[in-house]
Amino acid sequence: GQQVMQIPQYQHVQEGEDFTTYCNSSTTLSNIQWYKQRPGGHPVFLIQLVKSGEVKKQKRLTFQFGEAKKNSSLHITATQTTDVGTYFCANPRGGQNFVFGPGTRLSVLP
Amino acid sequence: DAGITQSPRHKVTETGTPVTLRCHQTENHRYMYWYRQDPGHGLRLIHYSYGVKDTDKGEVSDGYSVSRSKTEDFLLTLESATSSQTSVYFCAISADSSNQPQHFGDGTRLSIL
To answer: How large is the greatest C-alpha to C-alpha distance in chain A, in angstroms?
Structure first.
């Protein structure tokens, strides 16, 4: 079945450093979504990418969708302690639901 | 946040007992989902619904059943709970199956002893 891989599984950074997480699929995706889950919280939708090569920005967050629509990345510039959490990518499967990647857990040391 | 309420928020029960978790939404969204979240596994889909009385299985549906008799309510039942079903359960809703965000409830922490 359709699988989504995310790397790295964990990332520890010093506050102010940049952070990137990657999402890779074995098949071409119609779109991809990114979510953030704070410790003890629930996943919260960040963004959706649809077009090949699409790049979207939200303040210090930059999201990219690969040209082949098989991978995506989330880059955070100058991390802050508020960026702590787990970042998930999710892609549609069968037109009825989404498959979530295993997530990348980000720790930011002050 | 979207109007999603999960109940109970916490539950401790014994192996072999039935358990029902409730998800209530006020958004009138068509799609509703139940996930479980365990360390190292991310979010795994248990069951989902695409309308009243229309449900289908997800990747980890064994041992779980669901019902949706009204648009706003989606129930998840563990007929005979086992310790392997100890987890955090999230309900999510979406206006569209594959092109709209999913909005999650606050979760139910279920412990089965």
So the answer is: 42
CB contact (8 A) between residue A90 and residue B104: no
Long-range CB contact pairs, B50-59, < 8 A, 24+: B50/A96, B50/B97, B56/A96, B58/A97, B58/B33, B58/B34, B59/A1
Nearest CA in chain B to A104: B42
Identity of the residue in B42, B90, B101 whose CB atom sits nearest the CB atom of A42: B90
Sort out which chain A residues have CB atoms less than 8 A from B58's CB and list them. Answer: 97
Asked if B43 lies within 8 A of A33 by C-beta distance, the reply is no
**Chain segment A100-110, per-residue pLDDT in tens:** 999 999 999 98
pLDDT single digits (tens) B79-110: 999 999 999 999 999 987 777 889 999 999 99
- Indicate the range of A41-45, B47-51, B97-101 predicted with least confidence: B97-101
Q: Which two tokens stand for residue B38?
A: 């365990």
Judge contact between A43 and A37, C-beta under 8 A. yes
Give the CB-side neighbour count of residue B40, counting CA atoms within 13 A: 0
Q: Which of B48, B97, B104 sits opposite A43 (nearest CB)?
A: B104
Could you give phi then psi for residue A37, rounded to 5 degrees?
-125, 115
CA–CA min distance A54, chain B (Å): 16
